[in-house]
Amino acid sequence: MPPAGELAIVLHTHMPYVEGGAPWPPPDRDAFLREPEGFGTWPFGEEWLWEAIASSYLPLLDMLGRAPLTLSLTPVLCDQLEAPGTIDRCLRFLRDVRPESHRLDIEELRREGHLQLVAELERSAAEYAETAERLEAIGDRLVSRLGVHASWTSAATHAVLPLMATDVGLELQIQTGISSYRRRFGGWDGGFWLPECARAPWLDPLLSQEGVRSTCVELTALFGLGDPRHLTPLAMDGGPVLWPLDREVVSLVWADSGYPAAGPYRDYHRHTTHHHRAWRNDGEPYNFDEARALAAQHARDFVGRVSGRVRDGGVCVCALDTELLGHWWYEGVHWLGSVLEESARQHLRLTTLDDALGRNDPVRAPAELPVSSWGSGGDLRTWSGPPVADLAWQARTAELKLLAAPAPPNPRAIRELFALQSSDWAFLTYRQLAGEYPRERARGHARALERALAGDAGLEPRLRNLAPHL
Q1: How many CB atoms lie within 10 A of CB 241?
Q2: Would you kindly state where each structural domain of the chain is located, as residue ranges?
Q3: Is the CATH code 3.20.110.10 the one for domain 6-377?
Q4: Contact call for residues 233 and 214 (beta carbons, < 8 A)
Q5: CA-based, 20 to 30 A from 369: which of 82, 255, 410, 443?
Q6: pLDDT for 287-346, tens place per residue?
Q7: How far apart are CA 54 and CA 292, in angstroms?
């Protein structure tokens, strides 16, 4: 007998605003950070977007449509992918920079006698070339191709909504995100990804008045790991339906000891001289075929565990950042494809959250749900704790300055506030993942906001493609 319950895989697709538009190639990292129209290429500038296109978004197109998946696209990501020149610059990166960087590393490794590493880099170079051909064929239709399968939207620039200072500011982030979806893709059924799954009770009426019907939340700290209450949607008085994430299942993929940490998978952190990855997690030369075989094995394990989890009914919600698959975990897209195949073989029913809402009656939520997120500790410390409290304060202060201005704010000022409110700057700082880059970005947007509010006509033309229809 097939299990009574269902699996909902939720892929949240997001990238902070890094689209540059500056001349390529940049002279060096520091010079590029000073370029008036760019936000850097290395290591967390526009090259971050290009690698995500190549390793996550394009491969994901092969998965979408094969089985029901809940896909969210953030407006700020779509803005960048649709910006004039983005795809052309990505193609130049894939066709000019990556072949040359592979060539240099291959020559170095061949001189040193590392022939297994040479073979892997030759395979990798061919993969980049194939990706470039595919991207050229799709061209500027990448967003529309993804959008065919995207049923959920999010806040305009992925702001941590409970940390915002005013209802007006909240409405601006939420309304811009929803209108962005409708303008691009048409009808919307009310699915809304709360950035970082950050929820607070006072958001409920604002979300409902904008038409949000359902969203995902992290309640592990309240219910406990593995509790069956994570498998049931929750009804809120005057608020959207809440879908608890099943952290027990999510951690199979997204934890320090999860599948991606296995020895045969490609090591994300160890690089060649020109930033290619040619080693396994266990330090040996990477073997593509062995890693794919392991991904299929892990998919069988995953589906088996989920089947046991929902044997008595319910909806197991496994939510992941899309960029984990392919970009961070190189084999992740293949793992996802194998999960779809294994679900059919093991008779595990897959569903979207929109469809599941019609088959599963929500139960009344506990009276006092805490402020929560899927960050460290299940609270908001990742975005407002002591290491990043100044960033939270800076964004709230900027929001109040913009809304208190005597004249209606101009679109440039709103865009700078949107960019400043991105959750990514605090996350990268808290996790110490990008050096001074996130703080540089936050300081730059705060300064530009001040100049925009003052009507500075000499302000350089950044952010022209962020929320372009403001």
Answers
A1: 19
A2: 6-377, 382-453
A3: yes
A4: yes
A5: 255
A6: 999 999 999 999 999 999 999 999 999 999 999 999 999 999 999 999 999 999 999 999
A7: 18
